[in-house]
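Section 5.1 Outputs to date
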Amino acid sequence: MSNYNPYDNVVSTIKNAGQMLGMKESEYITFMYPERELKVNFPVRMDDGSVQVIEGFRIQHSSDRGPCKGGIRFHPDVNDDEVRALAAWMTFKCAVVGIPYGGAKGGVKIDPTKYSRAELERITRRYTSAILPLIGPEKDIPAPDVNTNAEVMGWIMDTYSMMKGYSVPGVVTGKPIDIGGSLGRGEATGRGVMITLRECLKRLNKDPKGITVAVQGMGNVGSVSAKLISSELGAKIVAVSDVSGGIYNPDGLDIPGILAHLATRGNLLDTYNAPAGTKRISNAEVLTCDVDVLVPAALENQITAENAADIKASLIVEAANGPTTVEADKILEEKGVFLAPDILANAGGVVVSYFEWVQNLQSLVWDEEEVNKTLNRIMVRAIDDVFRLHEDKKVTLRTSAYCVGLEKLVKAKTLRGIFP
């Protein structure tokens, strides 16, 4: 799959939604292209005194509905096509849930496990200074993504603030609470996944207490999803995985115990002391486990034409961005698999990022109960909108979500017009 281009995936989905809505291509053609792209190469001094030149990207897909918004990931496979696709997904995600942002994404091409904390801080600060012309609380607001966290956001916020000469907490979201982060932000994406699963099960007339769930990827999103799906919905998590592989137990896994093990830096599932009856499986096997619900929460391009036919889950909730290819989508649709798409299911993070940004701009602090209650209201409203169009047009939830998003984007573009 090395020639697979995730941005082609985005363009074909946009065209599909546009045709479904009976739009002319001239109405949505803007959204088939990113608005602005920056590629940077910057030197960083390593702890041993050597210098490495590191590659990074910041790509803005659309600012028609407001400032651009999107995470920054640190990963050795980062490339411009991936970042471009992720930026476009952000545009649609923000439109679907109705928050006043466009989409952006950033990436730094490194394997963070190969660097010390001090080196990662220097890489982050140099990358921030390199993308400085593009970011700002009224222009483009980064957030955590794969292999980045609140600490990294703190470094970005400090670097930007040093350049400006005053503190600018609103330049990033997902920051530590003590420097302007929002309560509830750390769990927000996983909470949104849990809400999406809960609402889908309601519409399918299924009781969450009787269902089995597999979660591929136990990073922030996967681990919080697993925790909340088991604790708040009462479902049984029977399989989970991370980069080191997966574990499976048909009687259910001890999620709090697994999370406690993974909370120690450097710990992976391959060193988890699993109780009797637990089987070690591969990441690929997690996807094809005999479960009711599959939650892909790892990287994009996991469910492909090669393995889609082997998936046994009848409901998939996409916690990761772009985990399913276009070809796999068709196979799953033919199989009758119900799929809640990424731009809806994992939008909880950007919704609470929006709350954090609003709190920063207004110098206010919301309590966690208010954050979670407002997140729930926004997610349920968006899920209702997507289901309404899904039933109306008799299309998949993915097509329906893109239609909901595209309608809002095209309306904003039409109202604003084309400059000059």
